């Protein structure tokens, strides 16, 4: 294919115990998927319909690389989340078969320019500039599903400068992984390479230049990095 200019490299995420990498197609994010986080953000707990937004694929930060503090904000917040990676997809995927499309799991941060998000909320505007900026999705290496072992209970936690910030269990999610995949597939055609950030527990707070972070999905994945 003859492009006008060289095509940019495909964004990708490492895979544990493998030289292969997972090519990223899209990044879907779930908002307010833990009751305690919904409450701390002043929102109602709602089981009727999940809240979704997207990040560009090329905002992933991998392999322990430093995360640059973004422009246009004075209030960068961390949100630690379990990440689900898909090896296949489709439309209108039933809850009962949704896990068949999961390649593996990781842990990541949905970084947020909270001040810009607050302005957008106040004016009923989209969240794109608050959520989809460069380097806004640090993510761990993925652990491929082994013999159908999908985590039902796992501790999700974040340390910042070795101090606890966020802590919960993924069983506390309002919408579980099969439900998320089902609901997303009613809105988009899911495909191999999609990543799903499944929402943060309570404890979101600010990050500053020089801060270090350690995110963990117990027994599955871990992520360390630094804000520069």
Counting H and I runs of at least 4 residues, what is the number of helices? Answer: 4
Overall shape = globular
* Main pleated-sheet profile: 6 strands, mixed
- Backbone structural class: mainly beta
Please give the radius of gyration in angstroms: 17 Å
**How would you classify the quaternary structure?**
single chain
| Count of strand segments | 17
Query: Strands across the major sheet, in which order?
Result: 4-3-14-7-8-11
Mean pLDDT over the full residue set: 95
What percent of the residues sit in helical stretches (DSSP H or I)? 10-25%
- For the termini, the CA-CA separation is 38 Å
Q: Can you summarize this structure?
A:
This protein is mainly β. It is built from four helices and 17 strands.
Descriptive report:
This protein is 12% helix and 32% strand. The longest helix has 9 residues, at 114-122. The strands form five sheets. It has a six-stranded mixed beta sheet with strand order 4-3-14-7-8-11, with helices on one face. Strands 13-12-16-17 form a four-stranded antiparallel beta sheet, with no helix packed on it. A three-stranded antiparallel beta sheet has the order 9-6-15. A hairpin with a 6-residue loop joins strand 1 and strand 2. It is globular and about 40 Å long. By secondary structure, the protein is mainly β. It is built from four helices and 17 strands.
């Amino acid at each position: 294919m003859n492009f006008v200019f060289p095509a940019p490299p495909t964004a990708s995420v490492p895979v544990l115990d493998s030289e292969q990498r997972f090519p990223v197609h899209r990044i879907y994010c779930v908002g307010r998927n833990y009751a305690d986080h919904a409450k701390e953000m002043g929102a109602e707990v709602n089981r009727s319909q999940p809240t979704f937004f997207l990040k560009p694929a090329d905002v992933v930060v991998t392999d322990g690389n430093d995360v640059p503090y973004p422009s246009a904000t004075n209030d960068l917040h961390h949100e630690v989340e379990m990440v689900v990676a898909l090896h296949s997809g489709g439309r209108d995927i039933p809850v009962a078969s949704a896990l068949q499309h999961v390649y593996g799991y990781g842990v990541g941060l949905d970084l947020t320019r909270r001040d810009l998000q607050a302005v957008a909320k106040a004016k009923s505007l989209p969240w794109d500039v608050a959520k989809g900026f460069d380097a806004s999705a640090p993510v761990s290496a993925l652990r491929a599903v082994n013999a159908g072992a999908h985590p039902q209970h796992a501790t999700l936690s974040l340390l910042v400068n070795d101090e606890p910030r966020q802590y919960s269990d993924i069983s506390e999610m309002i919408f579980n992984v099969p439900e998320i995949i089902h609901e997303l597939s009613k809105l988009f055609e899911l495909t191999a390479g999609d990543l799903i950030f499944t929402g943060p527990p309570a404890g979101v707070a600010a990050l500053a230049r020089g801060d270090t972070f350690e995110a963990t999905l117990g027994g599955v994945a871990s992520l360390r990095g630094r804000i520069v």
